Each structure stands twice: as C-alpha cells, then as structure tokens.
UniProtKB/TrEMBL annotation:
Membrane-spanning parts: 20-41, 53-71, 91-116, 128-146
Name of a matching Pfam family: TctB
The organism's place on the tree of life at top rank: Bacteria
All residue ranges annotated as the DUF1468 domain in the record: 23-155
Keywords carried by this UniProt record: Membrane, Transmembrane, Transmembrane helix
Name the record gives this protein: DUF1468 domain-containing protein
Amino acid sequence: MTTESLTTTPKSAARVAPSVLVGIGAFAAVGIYVLVSSLGLGLWTSLGPGPGLFPFAMGGVLVAMALVWLIQELRRPSETAEGVDRGLVVAVVVSLAILASVMDLLGFQLSTFLFLMYHLKLRGRRTWVTSLIIALTGSVGAFYAFNYGLNVALPVSAFPLLNTIGL
C-alpha cells in the first residue's frame, strides 16, 4: 500500500439533484400532454396532414428530449447552482403575464417586440443594435410567418392608429 492509496477517498457516485429530476419530469409531462391532446385534432386527413400532426411531432420531440436529458443526467449529473436567481424567475414570470395581458390591446408585434427588448436589453445587457435587430426580427418575422405562411391569425392592435400602420 502506498500513502496515496491511504489519503485518497474513493469517488462516491454523484446523484441527480431532485430539482433537475423535477425539471425533466415537467418537460416530459408537457410533451405527453401535447401528444395526447394532438390525437384529438386528427393526425391525418384525406387531403394530407391534419391539424394535430405538427403538435404530435413536437410532443414527441419534447418527450425524446426529456429522455435524452435523463440519460445524460444519470451518466454524469450536472453541477447544480447553490441558489436560484429568484429575481430572474420573477422577472420572466411577471413579464410573461404582462405580455399575455397586453397582447390583445397592443397586438402581437408590438407587445412581443417590447417583451424581447426588455429581456435582451435590460435583462441580458445586449447592445442596442443587437437588441433591436433580434426583437424586430422575432416579433415581425414571427407575425408574418404565422399570419401569411401558416394562415394562423395573431392578434393585431386594438388601437385604430396602430392598426392602420400594420401593428
């Protein structure tokens, strides 16, 4: 026996943090809910893909990602932070609630633009140029992709002035 073998302790098996397991479970639960809910919409029609096919595929992706995450955590648990940044959690939850509450009043484009600017510029401390480009692309791009590409109507502003300029 050497002195090294006496002074080193065997590595104990690292455990997956309970909070990580809760996150994986929540992720999987959302995926399973989407899978089950999309079945009621119909996956296929006589004309081709039905309205439930895309949500079904996304639910399957969520479940698969949860399984991959679980396998990764079981093989090598991630380092967990000492504490949760409660300010960040509160900021995200409150800003999402505000976004949902003003969406019908301001419309999708303007409310999403303001939401993204808040998170990019104020919370993320990005430059003005980067924040503006990402927020404009995200809000206007998503609006046009859904409205004209997918024929899904998103809310427009309730204010006539904003509505006349396309917001």
